[in-house]
Amino acid sequence: MALALVLSACGGRLVPPAPVSGSSLPPSSPAKATHHLTRGDVPVNVRQADGRIVAAVPMIPQFVTVPVGAATAAAAGVVAGPPVATLPMTDVQAVAARAAFARSCPGLMRRVDTSGLTRGTDWQAACAAAAMGGDARGFFASQFEAVQVGDGKAFATGYYEPEIRGSLDRRPGYDVPVYGRPTDLVDVDLGQFSDALKGKRVRGRVNGGNLVPYFDRTQIEEGALANRAPVIAWAADPVEMFFLQIQGSGRLRLPDGSVLRIGYDTQNGRDYTGIGSLMRQRGLLQPGQASMQGIVAWLRANPEQGRALMRENKSFVFFRELDGPPQGAMGYAVTGQVSAATDPKFVPLGAPVFLSVDRADATGLWVAQDTGGAIKGANRFDTFWGAGAGAEATAGGMSARGAAFLLLPVGTLARLSAGVAGASPQP
């Protein structure tokens, strides 16, 4: 199960740098057995001294029957969750989540909620209260009601901000282009053409008066972007660059020791394919290779097969330089141990979520500030853990299950029960 999931999300990938003769960066060593992180005001050892994950007992979601093919939260149905005041959040969690929520408020009130659950005006009171400060736990208890979307069965992975070797100019050992947004990439909001397509978008390019799919990974790597896209920098290792694209943002360690931060700008519009599941299905990994280090080692030991395998993921990410911390899909800075990627068709971007899962480090308040190519469906979350060895170790091994409770403005359930198709609230 862990191997099947290890490349199925936008994050959570451990990418050991390839050793390079003469490089100023030594190969990374395996993570220590214990990484001290803090989730709320309770210190959490991600792994105990014997290497075991710190477990937690998750809450049990209500049993509901979800309509087949439900494509939004409104269609999947929502039921009332426990009172927010009873959710076991800590003061530190609440303070951090409130800050992230407040930062998201302008976009939250402005964006069209494709989940079908809220309107921009619904969030005004909570956003105003977030700016007032005061007791953070009391803020969530007074401004929000918890709801379960669909069956409420949460599955959470993790992602982090990786660091790879790069150079601002092309030089020996640095020949993998880090592309910015192509000049001919077109974003199309289909909702402008039909109300039935509201919330749907496609990306492509114009060819002979027709909109066609944009170049896929193979075409791009074979030179299709010549004179079409700027090159921000040059990476040293194609495997490192591949996984940085999956993460969506990261740091380039330059030859002089300085750092260039880059973040997701856009994507070529092609579907994402996780190569970990492909490797498992094809029996490419031998016993003892069922780890990220083993996967990366296989790709490097089999460069031609590895290149072909990576090209089966046709999705390709374009970057931009960042002046500050990495940003999520809303355009706001994401925060380690607070921000999460979700599917906006089931969670309004900017909304708080309480995860009660079988890992202590992932249990608590999160704020939906990002999205991911593989983060699809109800109750699917990718938790962000920041940067550094501890974040890398936690995100790389994150696979948690339990219950999810979406926090919506007080009164939302009553409004949904009064008139939104697909919602089935209960007391």
UniProtKB/TrEMBL annotation:
The keyword Lyase applies. InterPro entries: 3D_dom (IPR010611), MltA (IPR026044), MltA_B (IPR005300), RlpA-like_sf (IPR036908). It catalyses: Exolytic cleavage of the (1->4)-beta-glycosidic linkage between N-acetylmuramic acid (MurNAc) and N-acetylglucosamine (GlcNAc) residues in peptidoglycan, from either the reducing or the non-reducing ends of the peptidoglycan chains, with concomitant formation of a 1,6-anhydrobond in the MurNAc residue. It comes from the Bacteria. Residues 18-39 are annotated as: Disordered. Signal peptide: none annotated. The keyword Lyase applies. Residues 163-320 form the Lytic transglycosylase MltA domain. Gene3D superfamilies: Barwin-like endoglucanases (2.40.240.50), RlpA-like domain (2.40.40.10). Its EC number is 4.2.2.n1. It holds the Pfam family MltA. Keywords: Cell wall biogenesis/degradation, Lyase. It is an enzyme of class 4 (lyase). This is peptidoglycan lytic exotransglycosylase.
